[in-house]
Amino acid sequence: MDRLEALKEAYDILNKVTPLRRDCGTLCNKACCDGGIEDCGMYLFPGEEDLLKDQGSWLSIVPVDKVMPGLNLARCSGTCIRHMRPLSCRIFPLIPYLSQDDILLIKMDIRAKGICPLASEAEKKDLQPDFIRAVRKAAGILITVPEIKGFIFRISRMLDEYRSLPWFNLVDDRR
Ligand code: SF4
Ligand code: SF4
Fold first, then answer.
1. 80 C-alpha to center of ligand 2: Å?
2. Is the peptide bond before 86 cis (omega within 30 degrees of 0)?
3. 44, 46, 89, 166: least surrounded by Cβ within 10 Å?
4. Ligand 2 centre from 41 Cα, in Å?
5. How far does the centroid of ligand 2 lie from the alpha carbon of residue 33, in Å?
6. pTM
7. Dist CA 63 CA 70 (whole Å)
8. Is the pLDDT of residue 8 over 90?
9. In angstroms, what is the C-alpha Rg of the chain?
């Protein structure tokens, strides 16, 4: 399977599932879709830029070479064509995590804790099992593509760094 095939399959698996059975956007006024936050965005998994490049004005793709060479951020205006939303939006507030010894875990994204009430007040087990299973299944497919696996490994090390910062030690993303 090449990376576009893997990405399309992941998009499909994650198209209908949501973190809660009800609309969690009512808890936070859709905080994760606040298109007004400058310099923010969602990391694109390698190859997503090819899937999303002709989406029109709702999405812009910005290289972030200084922080993560070769990678891109997607920025939206707070609305999107839902079936074309990026993977990072589909899995939020979860994240696939590869340990140093190559074990794939699905974690609450420690970066989400300042934004998302699910990440700060709930535990992973409080999310819909179908959602967690879908994220795990999609991640299992994505890591079969070496380039995407490398990306997940890089993000995992970045999350390790976040965890080593004093103020992030106040929260726990292992649950
Ligand atoms: S910030 Fe969290 S609770 Fe709010 S809409 Fe996004 S995923 Fe749902
Ligand atoms: S692309 Fe869609 S789901 Fe993702 S942040 Fe923007 S509005 Fe929200």
1. 6
2. no
3. 166
4. 9
5. 5
6. 0.91
7. 7
8. yes
9. 15
